[in-house]
Design a protein that fits this description.
The structure is a homodimer of 443-residue chains. With 443 residues, chain A is α/β, with parallel strands linked by helices. The first copy, chain A, is built from 14 helices and 19 strands. Helix content of chain A is 40%, strand content 25%.
């Protein structure tokens, strides 16, 4: 029997905790190092992405480590989008052809706590909080941390980074020759606002992801178990109707009331939220390779540390969870040869991460602009019609992304094939009509 | 009269020195901070890009600060390419239609010394060597340096970074939200080799840039004033015929002798060069914006720090020199409003830097592969024929890049227009031939 190896996982967020679960089940000793304080005692930070949409990919990963039921207890299913027109008119679009499938609104902090508890309940897993990584030697696996008790050094032959979009570990790998990296910011910022419960009830339908599409800007809202909604405003950073322009509480409130009137009426704390919540940034980060091999250690990247995406497809966490599943599969296939498994994992996952990064950028345009148009609604109706007509053979991209575990790049290839087939059938039908008309005329 | 402002220029390489020259002429106090020791006393580093091709853009910039003559004293003009076939056959391609225009082989260290001396001869310019930047606060302009005498702090309200592809200053800006950045490595490495003088004479024609195109790999050689040639081998990092595969002196020498036979015969020190010279990396770095504004300071990027390109168009230094010219122009236009001038400079230069980055990547394929083909040689001959036929109206891309100061993106647009016109004329000519043939047949 192989001696259990020690693995350091940097970051005890969602992906770090799931990584620990998978590794513990393979018999590894895992230490989670986390920059923040213990989330089981601390309160959530204000103004940071408070809830997220968990869908099939994430659930599939959680099922494999037996955490799906615990997580889903606090989930609020959203089977479709509810669009809010400027005049307050509502229109609902189901996400699936049968209207039954849903993505799930989950509190990020709640999810993190559940997953951390799940990880720490497994033999061999421990966590060190308030450990901020300040140095990493890829050759030796030596890590420097700043802690409340001063700097400490720890080492591990296997270091896995799940420390998010601004990963300190990836920051170190960036200095290695041959390490490709990019960070691309959108010219948009985001700010979180709240629609509190009204008389103890949800102020909007909790069975939907709410969208206020406004062309170059938008707001979304997801329900919380306490019957409030967390709203996120996505606005340009500069130019007309931007955070730069609307830089006082008065200007902001006036513009907001004019463009999001129905929401404004539900936000008693708007001025306070505006003043206290920071403007967040939207970035796509790409890196490759996702591992680095030193003389005596190997370092790997998972989740946002390897591929941060913008939030518009609701796939950031789901995609990160898939990384953990794939790494586990590669460890199985390579007989737990970590360097080999990490290389294989990166080579398999990279195209899928690149695909969802592109889809997430495209979906921003769809959400803020297209969903409000009639032709888009018609297209969605035709799509769902085709899905019902050809069950399992014609499936929309949204459904394949959100309600299946078909790898993202495979989804894209399948969508391309489907569209070609539909065009061919349509042209064939037109030709048939033409021939029939010709025959009729000859009579 | 405005009080002379203090500017810190990080990096006393080619672009840093030229920046200092331009600023001193505008009346600024300039301090150059350089990581390396004083190049006027030190010997050049071994195995680093020892010479470069200076062309019109670089010369134009040097003329503006009166350094062109001093620099050109040590230049060796190369009016064309000399291709070395595997069997040793030579073929020469002039770079210009008239065969007279030349790019210039210049020693990088010699050029650096001349430019540093030129900068330090101007009033208000001073240099601090062995100052390695370890920290920068964009708000205050406070800089931390490691020096042989321990750490020191300096500050300046204007900090300009000309510290190269691996810029420490840009490394700090990368943590600012909204700062886009990418680094993309080629799967190729490079190694420098030497063809020494033979009986006191050049062993190859010094009036050419020599190329050994070998499909997936190549070697180039540029002449030096001491009658040696500096050769640079561009090989894949892994796979057949790669640095990885040919990792012992024996394997390397055997492969080299088989594929570069004529050069091998001129390299008595091949084994020594192979063993001692490191394998360099080829990277394209993109960043934007090229400046950052703090509360009390502004930081700007110039040259490789803003846009490192691969060396295959011989434009890295030339492009960096153009940055200095543009920044000077923007200072003039804005009445020396540094933050405004830096914003304007970046917005104007970015597309040109992106264009030359792409052209340099494309030219690698041309140099290692296409130059050896007959159809490419024919195309070049037709191109030069058109240039002689339509002087000043049809100009090849290579000439516009190397022998003009037409901005790079403008070159690309002009080439597109030219190609369209040639295709239209050719189609017109074909049509005319067809009509004429038809008329003749009717008679």
């Amino acid at each position: 029997m192989r001696a259990p190896q020690e693995v350091a996982v940097v970051g005890a967020g969602l992906v770090g905790c799931l990584t620990a679960c998978f590794l513990a089940r393979r018999g590894y000793q895992v230490t989670l190092y986390e920059r923040r304080s213990d989330p089981r005692s601390a309160t959530a930070e204000r103004g940071r992405s408070i809830n997220l949409a968990l869908s099939e990919r994430g659930l599939d990963a959680l099922r494999r480590v037996g955490l799906d039921e615990a997580v889903m207890k606090a989930a609020l299913p959203m089977p479709g989008r509810m669009m809010h027109a400027p005049d307050g008119t509502l229109s609902f679009q189901p996400y699936s052809a049968d209207g039954q499938r849903a993505i799930n609104s989950i509190s990020r902090s709640e999810l993190n706590r559940t997953m951390l508890e799940g990880a720490l309940a497994l033999p061999g897993v421990r966590a060190r909080f308030e450990h901020r990584l300040t140095g990493l030697d890829v050759d030796s696996g030596l890590m420097d941390f700043d802690t409340p008790d001063g700097p400490v050094q720890r080492s591990a032959q296997i270091v896995l980074a799940a420390d998010g979009a601004y990963s300190a570990v990836r920051g170190r790998l960036q200095f290695l020759p041959g390490f490709d990296f990019s960070q691309d910011f959108l010219d948009y910022g985001y700010k979180e606002l709240t629609i509190p419960a009204r008389d103890g009830e949800f102020a909007l339908d909790p069975g939907a992801l709410h969208i206020w599409p406004r062309g170059q800007a938008m707001m979304i809202a997801l329900p919380n178990p306490d019957r409030s909604f967390t709203c996120t405003l996505f606005w340009p950073k500069s130019g007309p109707g931007s955070f730069d322009e609307l830089d006082t509480a008065e200007r902001f409130e006036e513009f907001f009331a004019a463009n999001y009137a129905d929401a404004r009426a539900l936000m008693p704390d708007l001025a306070d939220d505006y003043t206290h919540n920071p403007i967040g940034h939207l970035v796509t980060m790409r890196a490759y390779p996702w591992h680095a091999r030193g003389a005596d250690a190997v370092v790997g990247l998972l989740g946002d540390a390897a591929h941060a995406v913008v939030p518009f497809y609701g796939q950031g966490a789901n995609c990160g969870f898939e990384d953990c599943v794939e790494l586990d599969r590669c460890l199985e296939e390579t007989g737990d040869d970590f360097p080999e498994a990490l290389a294989l994992y990166g080579s398999r996952r990279k195209e899928h991460a690149d695909t969802i990064a592109e889809l997430a950028l495209e979906n921003f345009v769809e959400m803020r602009d297209k969903v409000a148009s009639r032709s888009f609604l018609l297209q969605k109706r035709i799509e769902h019609g085709l899905e019902r007509l050809l069950p399992g053979r014609y499936v929309s991209r949204y459904e394949l992304v959100s309600f299946s575990t078909v790898p993202y790049a495979e989804v894209q290839r399948r969508i391309t094939r489907q569209r070609r087939a539909v065009v061919a059938v349509a042209l064939g039908a037109l030709a048939a009509v033409g021939v029939t008309a010709g025959l009729l005329r000859r009579r």
